Amino acid sequence: MNQVVSGALSGTLGIIPSKSAAHRAVILAALAQGETIIEPLQLSEDISATLSCAQQLGLTRGCASAPIAPGFVRMRIMGRARNEGTRNVRTLDCGESGSTLRFMLPLALDGRGPVRFIGRGRLMQRPLSVYEDLFKAQGMSWQLRSNELTVDGQLNPGHYSLPGDISSQFFTGLLLALPALKEDSEIECLSPLESRSYLELTRKAQAKFGIRSDWAQDGQHLIIPGRQQPRSPGSVHLEGDWSHAAFYLVAGAIGDQGITLTGLDFDTTQGDMIILSFLREMGANISVAENFVSVYPSRLHGITADVSQCPDLVPALAVAMAAAGGESRIIGAARLRLKESDRLRAMAMALQALHAVCFEEDDGLVIQGGLRLSGGTVDGCHDHRIVMAAAIAAALARDPVTITDAECVAKSAPAFWEEFTRLGGIIHEG
Q: Residue 62: beta bridge partners?
């Protein structure tokens, strides 16, 4: 499906719950003793994949949902099934969710027989060698063929050494599985940990379920006591998603009337809250109160932004830079070449399609901003964040912008196009 979009956005919007927090809450609720209510939950494709995998792996005793608002549900999860398994293969469909795959892999090594992971798109092409090396060293079976990975074995407590510059999701996956083992474990970070805030998001979520871990004084070794069983806190309220909010914060700064967002936590561990700092550095007019943030039309100027701790911000940030006067640079973003698309190339092509001046570098982008863009056709590359960035960029364009693969926003934000029109954007099917 293609969408033809135009128009600047303005108004007030309640932001969707954090997808990162939702993945963690669902898995912890499935592992926990007792029943957990999670709300508000949006059943995006990624979160639906995690829910399904938790059930197929045999973690839950069941779950049920009830609608609480258009597009949102209250999810009730009954945890701690863990029936004794046979040697029959359990199949887990991760869709295109890297979080689902990397979080579930250590949990699948439960000694109850082989588990087959299947995926779509570029999922199985994304880095997995960190796990492969760790698990093969423990004598576990690892068979990767095309879009299918089968693993078998029993995860052992002990010392795990991981590089920190590939993905914090490997650390989170181990941190979700190791506390239940019979002895203590330790995770060592061999290089500076990128996206460290996401690991802290995991630790914060685990603390609600009574699971603890501690950093050693050097900040590179995470100590995980064994024999810990998560206990349901009864209910979990999901905070708003700063990754998603970034698109609308940029839209407010480059539009003509401003945007106000509600539902965000300003005491969050989500690293993508740094979008406020980036926009302020660019000259954006931002007002923050206890329960909302407003961004007003602003005269932006170019900056250099190191996104090694917040790579998901790049598509939205690149649009802001296209609007900003002078040259901007994005650095520290090499990992984006292994997302749903080569996200650096896809974003450069998107801006170039609208006649922005944008060049790729090995680990980032260089953007000469401040020009009014033309209309044109943007290849969404079947990447939800590229599609959403292109829609926001339409505010800078003289003519309508046609976006391919528009339906792929369902991966993280199935209500995105509804939000877009609610804020005054104009769309019709191409």
A: 78
